[in-house]
Design a protein that fits this description.
The complex is a heterodimer of chains A (101) and B (276). Chain A is of the alpha+beta class and 101 residues long. Chain A is 23% helix and 32% strand. Chain A has two helices and five strands; from the N terminus they run H-E-E-E-H-E-E. In chain A, a hairpin with a 4-residue loop joins strand 2 and strand 3. The longest helix of chain A has 14 residues. Chain A is elongated and about 40 Å long. Chain B has two domains: 98 residues, no CATH class; 161 residues, NAD(P)-binding Rossmann-like Domain (Rossmann fold, 3-Layer(aba) Sandwich), CATH 3.40.50. Chain B has a six-stranded parallel sheet, with helices on both faces. In chain B, strands 3-2-1-5-4 form a five-stranded antiparallel sheet, sandwiched between helices. The longest helix of chain B has 17 residues. Classes of the chains: A alpha+beta (101), B alpha/beta (276).
Chain lengths: 101, 276
């Protein structure tokens, strides 16, 4: 993952980093699981068993535009029943930030 | 913005060196507007490395000092944590949420005996994120050419090598004795028992095991320590036959011992290891 991110940065690409910072209930990955996304939508790493990866990429691209970090929560709840959810029934907190530090 | 930003550059350097460190990041802010909130921002971060001054800032000197202290403690424990503080680092407040991600050096897997089973176990060990060492006293067998997947291949006697690395071995690490030869495996087991290594296993048939047990006791091993710490015959009882299957049985036993999951180990059963 480091090598890929280094190549993007050296090539002048803007990069966002998404990290699992909290898991409630059943979750596929522990805190610290990470994914990096560049401005072209290329992805390295992973933050879940696959269920929220697409949504995280969308958030990461938005963060690259806004340059503002954001805490995203994914998981099952009544009003989110038809939105992006985790089939496992857990809740994932993912911190998405521009890699500009 | 182009190139590698400074804190990230230091982080990747520490990661590549496999040094222990923590990265603290402000992931949530619930602040009353006011002078104390100045400088605090979402995403603020600090890189904390033992024995070095922290890099970066959480937004206030007081908070920096407290977070650095807590991050070092987290590195010491080897566990990633989320903590809450007041904007000046006060305890029992939840204004600032800090994710303290701990990066630890990989655990070690030390395999004694340079045999076919060793190559398979070294592969599985790498897959699981261990730093793998293969050690054998015989220079013609202990070569990097035979074990290219190992991080290091050491020619040495097991007891002498274990004495050298004893202080480095802890609960996350594993020692597997695959020599099949009491001349090597008795000193290897005795040496490993003197360390804090979390997993210790020795390979062999029931007969080899009985013979080794006798010799270990004769050599002064304490029976209680052998019963609690030594997994012998090594591995879970999953009917493994090939070196590769055996490696999986051993790796699964290492995981189940670490997580405290009760599964049938060969050690706790009777009868032949290889059922036909």
């Amino acid at each position: 993952m480091l090598d890929q991110v280094d190549r993007w940065l050296d090539g002048g690409k803007a990069v966002a980093l998404a990290r699992v910072v909290g898991v409630e209930g059943s979750g596929p990955r522990d805190p610290g699981a990470a994914m990096a996304v560049n401005e072209d939508g290329e992805v390295v790493g992973s933050v879940s068993g696959g269920c929220v990866e697409g949504a995280v990429v969308t958030e990461a691209l938005a963060v690259i535009q806004s340059r503002k970090p954001k805490l995203c929560t994914f998981g099952y709840s009544d009003d989110e029943a038809f939105a992006v959810g985790l089939t496992c029934g857990g809740t994932l907190h993912i911190f998405v930030e521009p890699l500009d530090w | 913005m182009s190139g590698r930003p400074p804190l990230y550059a230091e982080l990747s350097r520490s990661l590549r060196a496999q040094d222990p460190f923590a990265l603290a990041t402000v992931t949530e802010l619930e602040l009353e507007e006011g002078p104390t909130a100045r400088g605090l921002r979402l995403g603020a971060k600090m890189l904390v490395r033992p024995g070095e001054a922290p890099l970066g800032s959480m937004g206030s000197e007081e908070l920096d000092r407290i977070v650095a202290r807590d991050a070092l403690a987290a590195v010491e424990r080897g566990t990633t944590v989320t903590r809450h503080y007041g904007s000046r680092g006060e305890a029992r407040r939840r204004d600032v949420t800090v994710f303290v991600e701990v990066f630890s050096p990989p655990p070690r897997l030390v395999i004694f005996g340079a045999v076919d089973f060793t190559a398979a176990l070294a592969h599985v060990g790498r897959l699981l994120g261990f730093r793998v060492t293969v050690c054998d006293a015989r220079p013609i067998f202990a070569t990097k050419a035979r074990f290219p997947m190992a991080d290091e291949v050491v020619v040495d006697w097991p007891d002498r090598y274990l004495e050298r690395i004893a202080s480095e071995l802890g609960p996350r690490d594993a020692v597997c004795v695959l020599t099949h030869d009491t001349k090597f495996d008795v000193p290897a087991v005795l040496g490993a028992l003197k360390t804090d290594v979390g997993y210790l296993g020795a390979m062999g048939s029931r007969r080899t095991h009985d013979e080794r047990w006798k010799r270990l006791l004769e050599a002064g091993a304490e029976e209680g320590a052998l019963r609690t710490r030594l997994m012998s015959p090594i591995g879970l009882d999953i009917g493994a036959r090939t070196p590769e299957e055996t490696a999986v049985a051993i790796a699964a036993e290492i995981i189940s011992e670490r997580t405290g999951t009760d599964l049938p180990s060969l050690r706790d059963r009777n009868g032949p290891i290889h059922r036909r």
